[in-house]
Each structure stands twice: as structure tokens, then as C-alpha cells.
């Protein structure tokens, strides 16, 4: 009885990218599913008749092809993130559908896929509600996915503009002491958002959108008195807002607008006696059905495997410190 299960790819070049340098990706896949993987021509196969293993093998190869067919990129971190998502104890996790929740951006070279179940939940929240809070550690994808969704909305003409804002609480300096006009003053604080945009679109397109006023930057203090209509607004580093600033920001919302609030409650730079606006808002607004709140963790860190280990180590240390305080 023939137990071989084969997936036919479009060409040998794609198969080569799937396999990785010196078949490094194949080795990771073999270790993960527990059976040998072999190739010939433009085919990749396993000699296994267990339908669960066949299903998982197909899921893995389909995800890799989806991720690299446009960009041509394949890395061990990408393969690890795919292998660690989608299946729970060898059974397909039907709540995690990377293809369903992929973000398509007109003009981009590739789709943006969620790498973890929580990331897919975040994208689902973006599409369901107009106000979304995303809290999680550095590298968990919260800001990148918010930027990708905002770009998708504006370039699909579902909104007219993107507004980027964040509180400024750096080293006691105020914007008035920084050189240049308002955009020059605030741009250094919004650099991570621009970096995320450049990862989604060619830099010249991002520059053109900014020049045309479709992408607007504004410090949080300058939002008072405005009504934000027909736009996607990203409030980054929201853990450094005060409760009053957060209330002011949320009440700026106008018609056909989306508010994406991102932050990391483990990196609050406010004075100790001041309550974080992000912490406060997530505590008192959690029962409003029109507002989504998604919490990401160290398991969602996909920026780089070493970053994941660093985040997890700090998390463990904080838990130990809390236990010592309680004693």
C-alpha cells in the first residue's frame, strides 16, 4: 500500500526556497512532524499514511509558500513561527487561520500574515470593532499589525487618512526645545511606526503619502479640540498616557474612524504616582462590546528568537519579584 503524501509546487525555484539553505528548513520540519521529508523535481513528500500528520504537513508547506512566494524570503525564525502555530497537540486549530486573517495592502509586495493565534485575534478585532486596544511586549507584533491594517484601510479607500500619535515623555524634554517644525520634532518619537510602514510598503510610497498629508503625525497634546473623522488613528506607546490624556484621545473619535491603541504595560515611564491611561482604560472599558481588547504575550514575540527569550526571561523575573513582595 502506497503511503506517500506529495505536494506539488509551482516550480523548482520555489521548492528550493521552501527547503532553505542546505535543506535547513526541511530539517526543522522533519524534527517537528517526526517523519522524513524528501523532494524530487518540484515535489515535496512524506512517506506517512497518518491523516493528521499529512494535514499538518500540508498546513506547514502551504503557510511557508504563502509567506515566501512573493517576497522570496525564508528564515529559520519564519519557519519556527509557522511550526509553533496552527496546530494544538497535532490537531488543526480551526480558530487560527493565517490566510483568512492576512492583511492585503494595495501596492505592497506581499500580504501580512499573523504569526500566532493571538495575532490573528488582533486582526479579527481590527475588522470587528472601531476601537481596539492591543497590549503586549516588544516584538509581539501589535504596532506592526496596527500599521499594516491602517495602510490597508487608507489604500483601499475605506478611510481618507492615517493619523499617528504617541505621548512624549522622554528624559524630561519638551517638544519646544527640539529643533525644526512640528513634524521634525515629533518624527523621532514616531520612527518605529515609520519603520513598520516601510516594512509593508516601498519607502517612496510612504514618503509620498506623508507629503500629500494622507499620513499625518501629531503629538498627543495637539489632539485636544479635534474631531477625527474618516481616518485610522494609531496611538502608540499608550502605556505612557495619563488617564486624562487617554479619555481626551478616545473622545476625539468621529464618523467612519478606527482607533488602534497599542502599548506595553511593563514599560511605563510615567512617575510612580500617576496611573497609566492604558491600564486605566483597559480596566474600565472592558465591558463595552464595541471595544476590543487583545492581550499578547512573550509567546507572540516573532521579531527575533533571541528577543522572545529576553522577554520571557524578564517576565519570569517579574513574577518572582511579585512573589517575594507578597511574602
Mean pLDDT: 83
The shape is globular
- Fraction of residues in H or I helices: 40-55%
Q: How far do the termini sit from each other?
A: 64 Å
Strand order of the largest sheet: 8-7-9-10-6-11
Total helical elements: 11
What is the N-to-C succession of helices and strands? EHHEEHHEEHEHEHHEEHEHEH
Percentage beta strand = 5-15%
Radius of gyration: 22 Å
**Record field, number of beta strands:** 11
Helices and strands: which structural class?
Answer: alpha/beta
Low-confidence stretches: none
Largest sheet: 6 strands, parallel
Oligomer: single chain
Structure description:
This protein has 11 helices and 11 strands. The longest helix has 22 residues, at 305-326. β4 (87-88) and β5 form a beta hairpin. The termini are far apart. The protein has a 6-stranded parallel beta sheet with strand order 8-7-9-10-6-11. The protein has a 3-stranded antiparallel beta sheet with strand order 1-3-2. With 327 residues, it is of the alpha/beta class.
Looking at this protein, list some descriptive labels.
327 residues; single chain; alpha/beta
Helix and strand arrangement:
Blueprint: E1 4-8, H1 12-19, H2 24-33, E2 37-40, E3 43-47, H3 51-71, H4 76-83, E4 87-88, E5 91-92, H5 117-128, E6 131-135, H6 142-155, E7 161-165, H7 182-200, H8 203-211, E8 215-217, E9 231-235, H9 243-250, E10 258-263, H10 277-284, E11 291-295, H11 305-326
Parallel strand pairs: 6-10, 6-11, 7-8, 7-9, 9-10
Antiparallel strand pairs: 1-3, 2-3, 4-5
Helix pairs in contact: 2-4, 5-6, 6-7, 9-10
Amino acid at each position: 500500500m502506497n503511503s506517500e503524501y506529495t505536494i506539488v509546487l509551482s516550480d523548482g525555484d520555489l521548492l528550493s526556497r521552501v527547503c532553505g539553505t542546505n535543506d535547513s528548513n526541511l530539517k526543522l520540519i522533519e524534527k517537528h512532524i517526526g517523519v522524513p521529508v524528501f523532494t524530487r523535481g518540484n515535489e515535496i513528500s512524506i512517506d506517512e499514511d497518518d491523516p493528521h500528520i499529512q494535514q499538518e504537513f500540508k498546513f506547514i508547506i502551504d503557510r511557508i509558500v504563502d509567506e515566501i512566494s512573493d517576497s522570496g524570503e525564508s528564515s529559520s525564525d519564519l519557519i519556527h513561527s509557522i511550526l509553533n502555530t496552527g496546530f494544538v497537540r497535532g490537531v488543526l486549530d480551526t480558530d487560527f487561520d493565517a490566510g483568512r486573517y492576512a492583511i492585503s495592502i494595495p501596492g505592497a509586495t506581499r500580504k501580512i500574515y499573523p504569526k500566532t493565534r493571538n495575532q490573528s485575534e488582533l486582526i479579527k478585532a481590527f475588522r470587528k470593532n472601531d476601537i481596539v486596544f492591543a497590549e503586549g511586549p516588544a516584538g509581539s507584533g501589535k504596532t506592526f499589525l496596527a500599521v499594516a491594517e491602517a495602510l490597508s484601510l487608507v489604500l483601499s479607500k475605506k478611510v481618507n487618512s492615517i493619523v499617528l500619535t504617541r505621548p512624549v515623555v522622554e528624559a524630561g524634554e519638551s517638544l519646544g526645545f527640539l529643533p525644526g517644525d512640528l513634524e521634525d520634532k515629533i518624527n523621532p518619537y514616531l520612527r518605529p511606526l515609520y519603520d513598520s510602514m516601510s516594512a509593508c510598503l516601498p519607502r517612496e510610497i510612504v514618503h509620498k503619502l506623508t507629503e500629500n498629508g494622507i499620513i499625518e503625525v501629531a503629538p498627543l497634546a495637539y489632539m485636544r479640540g479635534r474631531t477625527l473623522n474618516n481616518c485610522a488613528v494609531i496611538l502608540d506607546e499608550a502605556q505612557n498616557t495619563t488617564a486624562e490624556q487617554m479619555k481626551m484621545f478616545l473622545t476625539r473619535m468621529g464618523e467612519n474612524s478606527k482607533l488602534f491603541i497599542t502599548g506595553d504595560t511593563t514599560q511605563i515611564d510615567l512617575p510612580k504616582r500617576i496611573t497609566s491611561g492604558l491600564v486605566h482604560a483597559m480596566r474600565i472599558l472592558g465591558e463595552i462590546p464595541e471595544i476590543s481588547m487583545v492581550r499578547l504575550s512573550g509567546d507572540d514575540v516573532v521579531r527575533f528568537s533571541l528577543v522572545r527569550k529576553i522577554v520571557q526571561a524578564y517576565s519570569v523575573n517579574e513574577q518572582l519579584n511579585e512573589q517575594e513582595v507578597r511574602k
